[in-house]
Design goal:
2 domains; single chain; mainly alpha; 4 strands; two-stranded parallel ribbon; elongated; 3% strand
């Protein structure tokens, strides 16, 4: 704890409030040393613990302490050394930020503008010369023609398989509709299915999607890189052919049985061998299975044409993404410049404050400790004298407020 040298004359202070002596030497030259806590206790006893007396004592301690540290040049130099170091740190930061700003403005930002111009030129060149990416410039017409054919074949397969399925599962044949064409392409398949029930209609409508789904699976399997894809593709084609063969067999069998019952000739029962020799059997298979294979080839062709078109679009989109990235980096650099300019301004403000402190004198952190020690002695006397808790709290508040005022208006650092 810091010591204050106080003369014996100070202990003889009258009960009236003392004025700070104008020509009195600081406490350094006095004959007896006591602690600030003892001094606070003694002064409180002399001044009866009054708030006005407390304020005078606080002011007296401050001026004596101020005069003492002000005249101690060696101590002042020691206290100011950390401030000078801090000033140099701020100057170093300013120099580093300034160099970084100069580099961004003179090198990085021009490079970003150059990259943006290059990307825009590459994008313009790509629009004018798409053949550099896509060798076949007929991709777009081929795509639209393929889409038309694919849509037509899809509609055909829907009509064919819905009609064929209706004829296979639900239709009752008569001698008036034993023709194979009437059996496959039944104009009343959907309306009659709806009349028979919603479930029957849903089955007739959804069966074509089975074949379309098989065609889509074949296309996806072609994208695989292993050899097993050929086995899978062959299996799917075989399943489709068998399904079509079953439909053809059921339809031709119904037609054959109607004709056999109405014939006066002795006709054998229908069999697989008879079906394979019947032209109608193969007609139904070709009307469905072969068209289904054609649909698959056209589907692959359409997707390939779309991929050619998509190459240019993807390339242009990639250029846009790269331009956006460059613009984002440019914004980040400008934001970084703004932040560093703010740091530079703040550092200059701090340097100015530190230089003002260096131009004056520094009060070490032990000053606050001394005042609080004085307060402890003062409050000790008040407590022993029977002062109320409110009076003690008021005295404590006065000291705290005084310390905060001195701290806010007087440059100081903590002792190292």
């Amino acid at each position: 704890m810091g010591l204050l040298k106080i003369t014996k004359d100070l202990f003889a202070v009258n009960d009236t409030l003392p004025e700070p002596p104008e020509n009195q030497d600081t406490a350094v030259t006095r004959r007896k040393e006591i602690t600030y806590q003892e001094y606070g206790y003694h002064q409180a006893s002399l001044l009866a613990g009054t708030i006005a007396g407390l304020r005078v004592c606080l002011q007296k301690i401050y001026f004596d302490f101020k005069e003492q540290v002000k005249n101690d040049q060696e101590k002042q130099e020691e206290l100011k050394r950390p401030l000078r170091v801090k000033v140099e740190e701020y100057r170093g930061d300013i120099e580093r930020w300034t160099n970084r700003i100069r580099k961004i403005r003179e090198e990085d930002l021009p490079e970003m503008r150059r990259r943006t111009d290059i990307l825009k030129e590459e994008k313009r060149h790509l629009r004018q010369h798409p053949q550099e990416i896509v060798a076949d410039l007929t991709g777009k017409p081929s795509f639209y023609v393929g889409c038309f054919i694919l849509a037509s074949l899809t509609l055909y397969l829907f009509v064919f398989y819905s009609s064929a399925s209706y004829s296979t599962f639900f239709k009752e044949f008569t001698l008036t509709n034993v023709g194979v064409v009437k059996s496959i392409f039944d104009a009343k398949a959907l309306s009659q299915s709806l009349k028979d029930g919603v479930t029957e209609l849903m089955l007739i409508i959804t069966i074509p999607s089975v074949f379309l789904g098989l065609g889509y699976l074949i296309h996806k399997l072609q994208e695989e890189q292993n050899m097993s894809k050929y086995f899978k593709i062959g299996l799917l084609i075989s399943v489709t052919f068998i399904f079509d063969a079953i439909l053809a067999y059921e339809i031709t069998e119904k037609i054959y049985e109607i004709v056999r019952k109405g014939s006066i000739d002795d006709m054998p029962e229908y069999s697989i061998l008879l079906a394979m020799r019947a032209i109608n059997f193969w007609l139904i298979i070709f009307a469905g299975f072969v068209v289904y294979l054609i649909w698959g080839f056209v589907f692959d062709f359409v997707l390939a044409a779309h991929a050619k078109m998509d190459k240019v679009r993807v390339a242009l989109k990639e250029k846009d993404r790269q331009i956006e990235d460059v613009n984002k980096q440019t914004v980040e650099m400008n934001t970084e410049i703004d932040k560093m300019n703010h740091h530079i301004d703040d550092a200059k403000t701090q340097i100015k404050k530190l230089q003002e402190s260096l131009a004056g004198f520094i009060i070490p952190g032990e000053f606050e400790t001394s005042l609080y020690s004085f307060m402890a002695g003062w409050l000790s006397w008040m407590s022993g004298a029977g002062k109320s808790a409110d009076e003690l709290h008021t005295a404590e508040t006065v000291v705290v407020e005084y310390v905060n005022t001195i701290s806010a208006n007087t440059p100081k650092i903590q002792d190292q």
